[in-house]
């Protein structure tokens, strides 16, 4: 589960960093605000990917998803991209749990 979730967060961090110039040039957001919000979310995504060994990483990762969708109020395409990454995040958690359960069942069967 951890590897799928970390991949989602890594790609999302890249997306959030690339949204910064869009916010500055198209949405006319001040550079200081755009840099602090977008790069702050990107750093939070990377930080949460590193903390996925415990529950804190998943909570921070979910906060990143909320922030990414929330950027849609400034850059409307982020509603779509944020929702897509939120769906990837949920899928990574659900599929990761299924994979872990299947591995445990297989290990118990072999033992």
TrEMBL record:
<keyword id="KW-0812">Transmembrane</keyword>
<keyword id="KW-1133">Transmembrane helix</keyword>
<protein>
    <submittedName>
        <fullName>DUF4233 domain-containing protein</fullName>
    </submittedName>
</protein>
<keyword id="KW-0472">Membrane</keyword>
<dbReference type="InterPro" id="IPR025327">
    <property type="entry name" value="DUF4233"/>
</dbReference>
<feature type="transmembrane region" description="Helical">
    <location>
        <begin position="73"/>
        <end position="95"/>
    </location>
</feature>
<feature type="transmembrane region" description="Helical">
    <location>
        <begin position="33"/>
        <end position="53"/>
    </location>
</feature>
<dbReference type="Pfam" id="PF14017">
    <property type="entry name" value="DUF4233"/>
</dbReference>
<feature type="transmembrane region" description="Helical">
    <location>
        <begin position="6"/>
        <end position="26"/>
    </location>
</feature>
